[in-house]
């Protein structure tokens, strides 16, 4: 049954949450702060695996949509642009891209010409989008590039695949966020592509169209 989520990419409350979260965003990846005592067996190895997957992608003109703090963006090779709705996130990413650029932008109406990039990458953005916004994002990806790589959160036993979450930041503030969890096969099917990674914590999939050249470096789950 659908949870009837509101628009995510353009929701002011969601934007405020991620803007406020910018300085502590990496703590989720690194197991620090509020995440220090969480039981996440194999988490560190899978983070390393996802970083390695991104780092081994062939050099290309790549746009990282909803780049966040640039935790993954900085490992891309080639001409790299990061885009995020939060100026605080963009500032963090820009510091990590000495030879690239990060901009504030609407992920569903990106300010670039058709076919401006070879590849679109997005990490932990797709799984927050309700149906209409997923369709809009995928249309933008197809307009801008011949390849799309999506990294997101894996569906695990005991986890509802679609849910509302209450999230707490270091200052104690609480925020309500819509989230989907996916299997690698489900993500690949939604993109019309192939599974790149199907782990306990992370999934990744790639779609290519318009005769895009090259292939992502695929790896087995940790």
From TrEMBL:
<dbReference type="GO" id="GO:0008757">
    <property type="term" value="F:S-adenosylmethionine-dependent methyltransferase activity"/>
</dbReference>
<keyword id="KW-0489">Methyltransferase</keyword>
<dbReference type="InterPro" id="IPR013216">
    <property type="entry name" value="Methyltransf_11"/>
</dbReference>
<feature type="domain" description="Methyltransferase type 11">
    <location>
        <begin position="63"/>
        <end position="144"/>
    </location>
</feature>
<dbReference type="Pfam" id="PF08241">
    <property type="entry name" value="Methyltransf_11"/>
</dbReference>
<keyword id="KW-0808">Transferase</keyword>
<dbReference type="GO" id="GO:0043770">
    <property type="term" value="F:demethylmenaquinone methyltransferase activity"/>
</dbReference>
<dbReference type="GO" id="GO:0032259">
    <property type="term" value="P:methylation"/>
</dbReference>
<dbReference type="InterPro" id="IPR029063">
    <property type="entry name" value="SAM-dependent_MTases_sf"/>
</dbReference>
<keyword id="KW-0830">Ubiquinone</keyword>
<protein>
    <submittedName>
        <fullName>Ubiquinone/menaquinone biosynthesis C-methyltransferase UbiE</fullName>
        <ecNumber>2.1.1.163</ecNumber>
    </submittedName>
</protein>
